[in-house]
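Extended Data, panel c. Modelled sequence:
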Amino acid sequence: MYPEEMVNPMRAELTDAGFKNLYTADDVKNAIKAEGTTLVVINSVCGCAARNARPGAKMSLEGGKKPANLITVFAGVDKDAVDAARTEMFPFPPSSPSMALFKNGELVHMLERHHIEGRPAELIAENLKDAYNEFC
């Protein structure tokens, strides 16, 4: 587990952009099952989260369409919440960072770590925007 003092600035990058931090399994399950679309970002301390994932997630919200609900959980810190999110992302294996778009509780789009690592934030944002245009 990482200390809160270390992860709080990384959490803030997303919460300042409108994401809601969730800490419990029940909160995650309820958010994912909410009506409409929900983007879930599994945040991480790794460099690809800082350089690619968080900036890409934020840039993806600059378009016309976007998810109704934006949530985030932090790998290595929010164990129960992360486990619940990963359960909903099945059959995809656990990875962090990762991003998943749900529509009315159904997984409709997934970006695993290997889709994020080494890719520019702009490409990640465009990938998400394409999913928003299709599902939001």
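DSSP finds six helices and five strands in the chain. This feature is highlighted in the accompanying rendering.
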